[in-house]
Amino acid sequence: MIRVLIADDHHVVRRGLLFFLKTQKDIEVVGEAKNGQEAVELVEALQPDIVLMDLVMPEMDGIQATKKIKSKWPNIAILMLTSFSDKDHVLPAIEAGAAGYQLKDIEPDDLVNSIRQIINGENIIHPAATSQLEETLREEENLPHVKNALTPRERDVLAELTKGKSNREIASSLFVTEKTVKTHISNIFTKLEVQDRTQAALYAVKHGLTEGSEQSI
Fold first, then answer.
1. Considering only Cβ atoms within 10 Å of each terminal Cβ, which end of the chain, N or C, has fewer?
2. Residues where 4-aspartylphosphate occurs (predicted)?
3. What element of type H or E holds 62?
4. Which numeric CATH code is attached to 138-206?
5. In what order do the strands lie in the sheet with 27-33?
6. What does the pLDDT look like over 79-88, one tens digit per residue?
């Protein structure tokens, strides 16, 4: 069972999510929080697998709550579920450690699929948010010293990772083992000072580290 905590200050939103998620045989809603502070407290008490986190909430917003949760319980996944797709909300959420970013107009089935994908180690960002991020981040300056810090093979792996490929798909594409891919990804995370695949992909787009490849997050 995937244990889910819902954090949203709107009762109607929480009720709607609870009603639908309860119909899924592999998902269990273990709690509901009305604000970020309550979300942090319930995470400590309930230890869910994933938190559906609203961005704008009283007492503590979703960004602050995500930072606190990820700093203490890094294995608990955060899926942002919000109405905002602009870069001023998306980028801080990803940098805080969110593994996914979806808008509240998402279809219920797509939301469930996002939850399952995140639990399986994937990262999900709504296309509207991705499009704006890519356009904005490409305008910023590149960092040549970061490019030079990555080996050619690490650059290849990063390019494949930025396309949203799994470790198995990257291994197949580059004709190496999954273990080798995991080693390269670990080195990439260390060199770029990022925590997960989504942050690495965003960093790559932001600083032009995958120029010449088809970039998508």
1. N
2. 54
3. helix 62-72
4. 1.10.10.10
5. 27-33, 2-7, 50-53, 77-82, 100-103, 124-125
6. 999 988 877 7
